[in-house]
Every structure is written in structure tokens, then in C-alpha cells.
User: Fold these one by one.
Assistant:
Number 1:
Amino acid sequence: MIEFILDPNTIIAFFTLAALEIVLGIDNIIFISVLANRLPHDIRDSVRQFGLVFALVTRILLLLSLSWVMGLTETLFTLLQQDISGRDLILLVGGLFLLWKSSNEIYLEVEAQENTENESSAAPLQGTKRKLMLAAVVQIGILDIVFSLDSVITAVGLVDEISIMVAAVLLSVIVMLYFAKSIGEFIHRHPSIKVLALSFLTIVGVVLIAEGLDVHIPKGYVYFAMAFSLIVEFLNIRARNKKPS
């Protein structure tokens, strides 16, 4: 057992997979942060923590049922000469849901900002916090399943040992838990970053739909475009802060 843990191949595989899981988890953090920022302050942290813990549980359960997960890649039916598997259906539904949710959030942020400010202050009066939290949890759960499926299939393609997969997933979620609050607060303080993040989620939704239709779009291009846009926006924020008020 110790020899297996100290094996350089095991160590390299573990850190490579953990890094990849953290990158794939960025989508999760952004979605959870955007959703949590719509809730009353006293339950935001609970929603963030629950969302990431749910993602951890989902990924570990999927890893422990690999035979079922890999069975999802088998064709269920053919539509317009396109083979559709269980995985394709999940990605299509998740992608459409993400497109709808991110587009709706962009509208609320850009077009209906004044209305949402009034609604956010009145939200606790119109509905109980439990209902608000339940609605957020359901939406997070739907996307967690989609992102977790994508993450697990990626892990299976890189590593053979389930123990390495579980350990890498556990480390990635711990890192995300640590940074989730600060990322959420930063997005909340900077509306331009929030719109950029929502635009990124829209692109992720399109990528999920494309993958559901067996059209592969390298995610490296998506993440590079997002990183470049973020760097430009950080420079804009720095320039605005330097201007005399």
C-alpha cells in the first residue's frame, strides 16, 4: 500500500487529475456563487457549502458505480441519424438548463437591475428562506449531476485506480470549498465580472449541448477565452480604481 502511494506514477496521476478536477469545478463554483448571491446573506454560505458537498457526494457515488456510468455511453435510440445515449440526454438537458438559467440571470443583472434590487429586499417577506434555499438547492443539484458526470468520465479516461480518482475529487472539492466564498463575494462586488461569468456559463451550456450531439469542442479554447477576458477585466477594474474620484 505504501509503495503504491509513494509510486511516482501514482503521485503524478493524483495531482494531474486533482488539477483537472479543480479546473472543471470552476463552472460549478461560478454557478453556485451566482445563485447564492440572489439569496439572503444569512443562508448564502450554507447554500455554497451544500452545493459543493453535494457535488463531492455525487462524484464519489458515480465513481463507485463506474459500470453504470460507462453504460450511459451506450446508444438508447437514434434521432435524425444521430445516436443518443443516456449521457447525451443528461448533457443536453443540463446544457439547455444552463443556457436558460444564465440567460435569465444576465437579463436580471442588465435589464431588470432595479427590479431585482427591490425583489431581493422583499424576498424574505414573499417567501420563507426555506423555500428560497430549496429552490436554489434543486437548481444546484441538477447542474452538479451534469458537471459530475462530465468530471467522472474525464477521470476514467486519465486514471485506472478508483482510490486515486476519489482522493483527487476530494482534494479538488476541499480547494473549491476554501475559495468559494471569496470568489462569490468578488463576483457580487463587481457586476461586470458577474456578467462575464454568466456569459462564460452560457458558453459552457453550448459546449454541453454540442457534446450531447457528439460534437467535441476542446474546453481548452473555452477556458483560454475566459482567462483572457478576465485578465482584461481585471486591468479595467485596476484602471478604474486608479482614477481620482
Number 2:
Amino acid sequence: MSEILVLTHVDYCPPAYLGDFLDARGESWREVRCDLGELDALDLDQPKAVAVMGGGMSVNDPLPWLEQEIQVLQHFIARDIPLIGHCLGGQLLARALGAPVQHMGYNEAGWQPMRRLAPSPWLDHLPDEFPIYQWHNDSFAIPEGAIHLLSSSWCANQGFSWGDKLLALQGHPEMTVQLVEEWFRDAGHLLDETQPSQEKRVQTRENLAGKVAAMNRLAEGLYSHWLRLAVS
């Protein structure tokens, strides 16, 4: 049976709200841990849609499974199935389309306002400016033939679409309150709040439940479009 795959890379970047969204709609989906060799057993012609989550590694790290995942994504792109990438996942999609991924020289973190740069059915439900949670220090270039969709003050390339069925994002629309707090607990020491590109923790936590709920609605629109493409 055709199914939805969610490709993950580490314990601390789970499907989170995406999993909740799929469960609430009764969708059949499966998490695949790329870093644990689970790509090997996949029938790449079976999935009807694929999401790619984040991770603390860089696309440029010399990890054999990263190269394997890029080849798998190129197969999915050739099949023209719906694809959506989150942070590292967006960078992997960019690399699969031949675009470089580079270190920015700093970390963009916290609630960062996105600016819409072009109309897109992926973004029809969104205003011209809206926040998405960020935690990254690499950034993708926009692949040839892609549409540059989103930008922020600290990262010019926040999102692009390619063809009708691929969306790559630099941010984390899948976040939940619990996941934000887990990241602070386990990796907060990696942040430097003196840097202007990194929101102070007290600011991030201010009305955190409300901000996450608003982003869940944002993500619901993205994921709903992604699912519609899977059956169109």
C-alpha cells in the first residue's frame, strides 16, 4: 500500500506536529531513520508523499548515509511526488537539486519573521509576514528553476518551491511547546544570546503556547496542501 514517509536523522528532531497532523487525519505514515540505515529496506517507488525533518549535522558532513539520502531524494523528485523539507531536510532537497549549502557564520535562532517574496499555492493561507521558529547555522542556495518564496533578516533564503510538488523550508514549522523546551534543556548551551541573530530565551518563551499554536495553524496549511498533492 502507498504510504507517507517521514525521514528523520536524530532523536531530537522528530515529526512532532507533523505526526500529530497525520494521525488526526487517519493517514498511514512511517518514520524512517536515515542515520540508522533504514533507507536500505525502502521500496522507493511505493511512497505517495515524503517529508524530511531536521538534524544537528550539516549536509556537508562526510557521512555516507547523507549521500545515500540525497540519492533517495533525487529518486523521489524524479517520481514527482509531494516533498516537504524542514531545516536540514530543506537543505538536503536543495542539494538533491544541485544547489550548494553553506555555513552562514552565525546561528539564527528563535521566532524570526518571514517575508513572502512570491505568490505560491503553498503559501495562500499566509499573510505577507509571519514568524517561523529557527535554529540553524547553514543555509541553502536557491536551486536553478526554483521559486524563491521566503526570506528573513538573518537568512535570505528561507524557502523555495521547485515544480508543483516540492517545498523546502529553512525553519521548523513542526515545533511543539515540548520540543522547544527539550531543545533549550539539551542544547541551550550552544546558543549565544549576545548575538543579534539569536532571540533571547525569555523572548522565545513569552506566550510560547500561543506562538506555537499560531505556527501549528501555519503548518496545517502547508501540510494540507502537501497531502492534497499526494492524491491529485
Number 3:
Amino acid sequence: MSNSILYYPTIEFRKEDYQWLWNAALFADKIYRIVPPEYKLNEPRNIRELCSTGEIGIPISPVMYSREASEAFSNFMNENQRKAAALSLIDDEETEYIRIHSSKMDVKLLKEVFYKLKQIDEDDNWLYAHPNTVNFYMTFLANHIAEKNSLSLWTRNEELWTTSTYFLYDGNLQDDYRPGEIYYEPSKEALISLMLPDIFPQNLLDVPPQEILRFREKRKDERTQFLNAIENLRKELAKADAPEVIETIINDEKAKVDAAAHEYKKSMDILKVVKFGGVLTTAITIAADALGYCNDFPDLYKGVIESSGLWAGVLTGIIEKRVSNNNNPYTYLAHINNHFSYHPGASRSFLGQPSIAKYNYTLYRGFEEFIND
């Protein structure tokens, strides 16, 4: 797995993405995005400067992926719409449309799914369809392209992260965690949120693009060491089934992640960073039955393991065990600031507990509501 990422779902970096982009530039080796052929980007000078080395904002044409992704999306929706309430598309009364470039999908095939699709006469390259349908498809397309190119998916949006993770696991996520054989449909694996708090430098938009590029060149080793530590934890846990082994891995590997994160933050001295915040979140899987007996997870919904720089909590269960494949993409959720929008029940359920516990509960409820509500 490379340390390169795919930005989605829009073609251009929008104003609300700038802070995310500045931070992502400190982590990723390369940042790709989906750009239709002959599309002329229209972005401000500081974005163009950040992209000037050819490592950030690299365009990937969707043309060679559109037919296969369209067919896979159509099949996925037909098979999974009844599994998750969020996959229900817009009703016939909806009148709002947003545009999607025709190169990103096979139009004939997707008319079966984009049943309110319309094409405007003045520009044959753009199609208009319902926002939810377009967003689902663009997220699905991003997953497809990421998987084909061994890229990770990064976003700053919780809903996109939930949707992308659902697609990544082929719709096999349950609305809760069900270990053991006493359940009608027990989980084979549990989906765990791995959270690294206080990892993003604050007020990074004040740093000129040239300084970001200098940091990328000077501190590449620290960046690689940090991301590889996360990857090693993931790989070790994916191979383990015994609870004793899982507990040992958690204790050993989280110390390595802590150390790597500490060194990486120290390396930002050349940017004169003095304050860190936010949370970097990704998802990993652990054998469900074994996890149920791990001391590090005493309360499967509410519990978190804590160290100086690493937290984890259970999100949901996975019905079908997936074959480990190092080429599969991973989804990352980057909350740059510390001001989280918690689920309404988080503060009541976690009164007096650390904010990261409320944050994990919010992510868990995101999956539950995606499937049920």
C-alpha cells in the first residue's frame, strides 16, 4: 500500500477544502483527484502553487473506469438497497438537480439507476441528476478508482466517510456488533475506528505553499515512518484471531504508532507549528469473537483504548469475513479542528468521559443511521 491518496468527490478543491488540503499535503506522498478529459481547472494561485511540483492535485481521467464502475454500481444498488435505508434514492417529487460529467459514467446503463437523469442541450458533456444519486455514485466511483490504483481515500466529511466505508465492505456492515454463535447472523469481524488525536497542525493556512513543499521534501522520512506505523498495526491485527494475540499486538503496535506520531509532530518545527488538534480516523477489522473477550475493549459500544496518541473503539460488525488484500484502499476521515459536531445522545451517554469517546459514539451512530434511518 502506497502513502498516496485520492481526493473526492469534487473535481476542484473548493474553499472549504483548503485547510484539509494543506494538512493532507503534510501526510500524503501524492494526492490524486478525478478530472474529466479536457476539463480546465479554475483554482486560485495558492492552490496552483501547491500543485506546482506535480505531486498534489494529480488528475486521473475517469474514462477508462466509467463503464466498469457504472455496471458495478448498478449491481450494488440492486443488491443492497434493502440493506441500508440511506441507499434509497430520491422520490419522484424531488426537483433539485446537480451536474455530473458524462465521462464519469456509462449513461445508458446508469439511466436504470439515475431514473430522474436529464441532459441539458447547451452542453453535451454535463448531465443533471438528483444530488443523493450523484453523490453516491461519485463516492462509489472514487472507491473503484482507488482500489484499481492502490490509493487510500481521504475526506473531511463524516457522511462521505461512512458511505465510502460501506461501499468498501460491499454492503456487509451490520447495524450493530454481534459476536458469538447465539445470534442469528453473527459478525465474522468487527469494524474498529482507529483514532489519532491532536495530529493536525492548527492555523496551517497561514503557511505559504512554498513552505509546505519545503516540509514535504525535508521531512519525507518522518512522514513515511508515521504512516507505515499505522499500516503495520492494521496488517498485524488483520492476521490475528486469538484474543491473547490481539491484546499483545494492540499493546506493542500502539506504542510504535505513538512514537512515530511524536517524531512526526516534532518534524514540523520547520513550519513553526506550536499547536496541534483534530483527529485522524481510519477503520480496521478484528476477528469478532476474539475481540469480544479482549480486556482492552470492556464495553463494545462505548469503550475506547487510550494511549498518549492512539484511541480505538468498536463501530459495527461485518457479516461476511473479507479476504485480506494489501491492495485494497483504506478510508480516512480528517477532522482538522477540535470542534466536533457530536451526535445528540453523545454528551448524555458519555457525561464526564473524554471527548474522543463522544466522537467514536458519533461515528458509530453514523453507521447505524446509514443502515436503519
Number 4:
Amino acid sequence: MKNILDFLVKGGIIMIPLFLCSVTALAVVIEKSVTLRRRRIIVPEVVSVLDNVKGAGDFALALAVCEKHRGSFANIARLALENRALPREELKESLGDQGRQEVHRLGRGLGVLETVAGIAPLLGLLGTVLGILKVFKVIAVMGVGQAAALAGGISEALITTIAGLFIGIPALVAYNYYSDRTESLVLEMENHSNRLLNKIHALQPGAEG
């Protein structure tokens, strides 16, 4: 542990924002690993009760199940069932508005991951440039004959680049992974929502098309 701390300290002041970037990225990854679980977004009980709707009388039970569960799809389904007597286009527009809110909620934090993935390597490069400037100062004072001093200065200058890449690469991988996962969940919600919308206007006597 002491060796690791010594290694990080040698990186200089740039290691502070790099450390903050790493903590921020880790926090977002942990949050997304919890909030983007499929069972949390598309609750199986909600999907099951909607699939088993066979008549207009089943909508009340489906609404009760939706009200018991939290989740993006449950919110959309509840809105659809509560407003099932609306004309099809009006209901579709309402579902679209609710869907955009849920998509925004699901994607929250991904921009932070993308930012960390972009700036961490740049911060590392900045730290290396600052370190190289210190090496040039050593050369100006001691000349080029002090190989040990120059090698030590260059190795210290590269620490921030290593740290920046070590943070940026996983952050980029996590961003791509959770972006794809979010898109997949959104497409699945759209599919279920369209099926529910079609079922409402096929079974609901008061609905207008």
C-alpha cells in the first residue's frame, strides 16, 4: 500500500483531479449497476399481468399491479391504463412524453462517465507535460550527464499518463456498456408499450381510435 501511495504522490498535483475522476466514475458505475437491472426497470410481474389481459375488465387488476411496483415500464403502463379512455393518438402522445422522461432518468450519469473517459487521459497528458518541463529544468541546472536524475524525472512525468489511461479506459468501456444496456431496455419498453396500447384500443369500449 505504501508503495502505491508513493507512486501516486510522485505524479504531482494533477493526481488530485485524476483521483476525483476515478471516484466519480466508480460512483456512477455502482449506481448504474443497481438502477439498470432489468427486473428493476421492466418488472416481470407487470409484464405478466399485462400479457394476461383478455378483456376490458382485466384493466383494473393490471392497474392495481402497476401501482404496487416501481420502475420505468410500470410508470408508463400505469399512465396508459389510467388514461385508457383517451383517443389513441392523444394517449400515444402522453406515453411518448412519459417515455422520454423515463429515458432521461435511465441515462442519468452516463454523460459523467463519458466526460471522465475523455478528460482523464488528457489530464494525464497534462501532468506528463508538466513533468517534462521539470526535467528540462534539471537539464538546465545539471546538464545532460546526470542520467539517473533525468531517468527519475521522466519516470515521474509518465505516472500521470499511466493513471489517466488507467481511469479513462475502464470509464469508456463502462460508458459503452451502460449506453447499450439503456438502449436495449428502452427498446424493450417501447415494444411492451406498443402492445399495451394496441390491447387497450382493441378491448377498451370507451377508447376512440
